[in-house]
Each structure stands twice: as C-alpha cells, then as structure tokens.
Amino acid sequence: MRLINLVQKKTKILVVGPLPPPYTGGVASFVSCLCSSKIFNKEYRVSCLDIAVRSRWKRFTLFRCLLSLRIMFRLFFALFKEPPDLVHIHTSSYWSFFEKSFLLLLCRLIGKHTLLHIHGACFDKFYYGTRFKAFVRFVLNRADAVIAVSPYWKKFLETVSVARVFTVPNLAENKFFIGKEPKAGAKDMLYVGRISRDKGVYELLDAVEILRGEAFTNRLVLAGGEVEPGEIRRVKDTILERKIACIELTGEINSDKVLELLQGAAIFIIPSYAEGLPIAMLEAMAAGLPVVATPVGGIPDVIVDGENGFLVPVGQSRPLAEKIGLLLKDESLCRRMGDRNYKLVLERHHPDRAVEKLIELYKSILEQRG
Question: Phi and psi dihedrals of 102, rounded to 5?
C-alpha cells in the first residue's frame, strides 16, 4: 500500500546531471532521456539541475572551482525551494567525482535520499590512483544506493563499497532505433567519441593506413570534440604527414548529426583503452551496425566476439585493420551482426527498460527508508 501512495502523491525526484546542449556526451544523453521519459513523468514529478560545463572552462582550475561552488549553491536552493524525496546524482571520475561527492554529502546533511550514478571509463584507475581512497569509500557508503552501468562495473564497485550497488545499463535514445536501412552506398567507417589518444584514435589511423595498402577506399569519419587543446590539430597533422586518404573530422556534433552519420556507415569502431559502457556504441547498435571494439570496461558485457561484432586487443592496429577489412568485404556478415545488435539493444538498452529499472530502484529506496 505504501508504494501505491508514493505514486499517487507524485513523488518528487531531483536529477542532478548535464543536459544537451551545449554538453553532448553520453551522460547528457542519458539524463535527457530520463527526464523526458513519458513513463518516468507519469509516475514521478521530475526536475533536473543542469550542471553542464562548457569544455573550455574545464581547463582552468580557478574557474572550475567557482563553477563547482555555483552548482552547490544552486543545489542548496533547489533542495529548499521544492524539496525532493530523492536526489539522483550523476558522476564519473576525478574532478567530477569529488565535485558530486560534496553535492551528495549536502543532500545527506539535509536528510535527503540519494542515488549516486557512476558513469565514465576510468573509475578503477581513478580509485587505485588517488590518495583519497578512504574518502571515495566514505562517499559511496553514504549513498542509499550506487548505480553501475554494466555488470563489470557493478562487480568492481562492490569491492570498494558496502553500499548497495545496482546495474542500470546505459541506453540509446528512441530515435536511434531505426534498424539497418542504410542509404544507398553506405560504406563509411565511423567513430563517435572524444578525439584523444586514450580512445585509440591513433591506432585507428594506423589501421586505416594498413587498409589503404590493401585497396580499401572506404571513408573514415571521426566525430567528436577534443578534451586536450590542439588534439584535433595533431590528428589532422598526422593524417597529412602520412598521406592517409579519405578521413573526415567533424568536430563536436549533436545527436541528429550522429544519426545521419550512422545511416551512412557500414561499421562502427571504438578502439578505446578504457570505457564505461559507451552510449555512442549502443546508438550504433540500435541503428543496426556491427561493432569493432576493444574488450574494456562494460563492452564485453554487450559485444560477443564473432557474434555481433569483433573484439580486438587494446593498442594493436593490425588486428583492428583485419577485423574492419573482414566486415567491409562481407556485407551479409555486417547485416547479420547488425540485426543481432538491433535486437539486443531493443531488448536490454531501450530507454523504457532503463526507466523501468530506475522506478523499481526508487520505490525500493523510498519504501525501505520510509
């Protein structure tokens, strides 16, 4: 009966996370889908504290500190202006984690229920590398529950925290569920993500150079912004120096442009050194593309080598080139893998599935805490 009353009274949920635009990352996509979900808004009264920060301000520590203080004040006023029953905080690693830690502790000080939703690719590296492990554990243990984006990350978080850890898989927006109905002559190789060394971009350039030597002329599209200033310029210089033909860098783009690129692509490639569970990959799978990726983070929880894509060793260009070439030569293999990906993402990573899991979790926390 208590659960029924919670729904009838329109329980108030405050979601703390970035929204597009200007922020266009996977976390923003997740938060946007969550807050706009008809299922979610039918059961809850949802508001969002948008904490998006333009990339250029992140480069200056003083400005970042001031922006973090501003976010804390905004949260403080939001907690009293329209007091929520539960606060759902999205974070990742490094600065983001410490910033959101103080937001979570503020919520607990005021007596609010909290969920800490951990995204990002390097939380294990962050944890083992920080001198503040005790503080990280303290913060995790203060949350009513912690959300991981895949079974891999759930297992890791359970080793460093006594908090309840739940898996709520990342999702692809509704508009990406088009299956594979490609434009005529869709043959591009597509990468979507940050343009950086840790994303395997330079190994991908090596692989394309190998493919050019084997007479493949398919265009490679690198879609995404830079984190480190000048990284796109360095990639362009590498392409020019090595005379690698048919490569396009789009810079940072919105989700509509990503969808357009997916419709013109034959395969999706993500050769990262570390990942959470990349939303860009899930969007490609929803669009019916096969995937060539590295077995890092939550990727092996979704991609089965040889079934719906290929997994290649981190940092190795030749195996990457071999698997890309295999797919480019075999359209029927691309189609079979793409069909499997569409069905898998529809079943496990559709927005409605994520929202349903979150609703169950919200009800569990609110019922348990009374």
Answer: -70, -30
